[in-house]
Structures are given as structure tokens and as C-alpha cells.
Amino acid sequence: GNGGNFAPTLIAGGLLGYWFGYSAELLGFQDVPSTNLMLVGMAGVMSGALYAPLTAIFLIAESSSGYDLFIPLMIVAVISYLINRSFSPINPDLKKLADDGQIFTTRHDQNILSQIELKDCVNNDPLYVSITADGETVLQIFRNTTQNTMAVINEDHRLWGVIRREDLIPYLSGKKPAHQLTVAAIATNPSFKISLNDKVINVIKKLDEADVWQLPVLDSDNRFIGFVSKSEILSQYRLLLRKFSASE
Fold it and tell me: Residues 27, 33: contact at Cβ < 8 Å?
């Protein structure tokens, strides 16, 4: 909530330490050092919440003059930090900034991919055909291009499906007659549809999951814009990698 994390972590840690000491007294333990447990609890919660074990150790020791607590402070702070790191490698407060590419982390691939804009990876001259087109038209288009994916659109320019070159190899090689080919029969629904607002790192995951090199990109009205290509993303990745390497 409002007020940051510093004071709430101290309060929560102190209450946690006191509850631990109080529970120990109820179980029959004698001379439980509740004050020390409260200080150690503060260090533990602060270390885990702020991802700052050294700050927690020295701050609690300095502010309470509890220098004799250095060993338990170190043990609790490190355990708390490691447990939280196992759930998230970076501070959750910074995760959104890292996902948006506003800060860099030790995940170098994610850092570079976050700098790539999806619009720069969209094919500006995609193949598309009307749903009413005949099979010979589709084959002729593929014979005259090196692109491997074609969009099938309806009269409103909305995506109906996609056609991939590998599905047409028997027809392109002449093993099957073209007159048996219909757009509706060979078009398939893409595994994923991409929006220009999607992040490149999520698009890469979808391309890998679908095991394809291209996915269709649609606008907010579900109208076809073009195809985003894994090869183009990798090209942009290499350009940025070369740029960052040269600046180091």
C-alpha cells in the first residue's frame, strides 16, 4: 500500500518475531528472548521483501546496538533472501520495469528482446488471398514468391485462416491436380494470433510453442495486418546485440 516497503517490513518482521517467541513460551520454553527474536524477524522480512540482505543485517544491528546478534541476523536474512530468489530472481517491485525494458537485469536475452518493437518485425508486404479464391490462384502466388505463409481473409479483411507452403507441396510438384484444391480445404486456423501491443518476448514464446516461423498480426478490429517472422525478430536481435557489444 501507500508508504513504501521499509516501515511495513519492520512492523511485519517485528510482529512475526514476537509471535514466534510467544508461541515458544506457550510450548513451555523458558527465558525466550522475544526482543531478539523481534529484531531477527525484522531483518528476515526486510531481506526477503527488499532483496537486500546486507542492508537488513547492518541496519538492524546498528539501529538496535545488537551486535551480538550478527550470526542469527546473517542466517535468517540469507535464508529469507534465498527463498524469495527461488520464486523471483529480481525484486517483484522491479519486475514490471524489467518486463517493460526500462531496466536491465542479468537476463541478457530478455534485456535485448525488450528493446525490439514488434512493428519493426512485421512483414510489410504479406501474402493474402480472398476466401473465395480458387486453388490455382493460390498455387500461382506461391510459385512467384519465396514467402512460405499466406493469409486467407474474408470480405471485411478479417483473418479467416492461413495457408502454408509445405501443405501445398503435392500440388506444387504436380503429384495432385490443382482442380481438387480449395482454399477452405487447405486453410488452417493459426495456433496464435498476435496483436501489435504484444511484447516481442511473448511472441517468441508463442512462435516456439506453435513450432512455426510466422504468425499473423491483427489490429484491434481483428483485421489482418501482416505476419511477424521469427527470422526478422532474430535479425533485429543481432543488430541490437552488435550495437550493445560495440558500446561496451
Answer: no
CA 35/CA 119 separation, integer angstroms: 58
Laid out side by side, the sheet with 127-130 consists of: 127-130, 149-153, 159-164
Neighbouring C-alpha atoms within 13 Å toward the C-beta of 48: 20
Cell output for 237: 536481435
Residue 104 has a pLDDT of 47
* Residues 41/11, Cβ–Cβ less than 8 Å: no
Task: Provide mean pLDDT across the span 10-34.
Answer: 91
pLDDT (tens digit, 9 = 90+) per residue, 65-109?
A: 767 888 999 999 999 999 988 887 776 666 665 555 554 444 555
Return mean pLDDT, the chain. Answer: 80
Decide: 148 and 214 in contact? Cβ < 8 Å: yes
Q: How far apart are CA 191 and CA 168, in angstroms?
A: 19
Q: Comparing C-alpha atoms, which of 22, 49, 52 is closest to residue 35?
A: 22
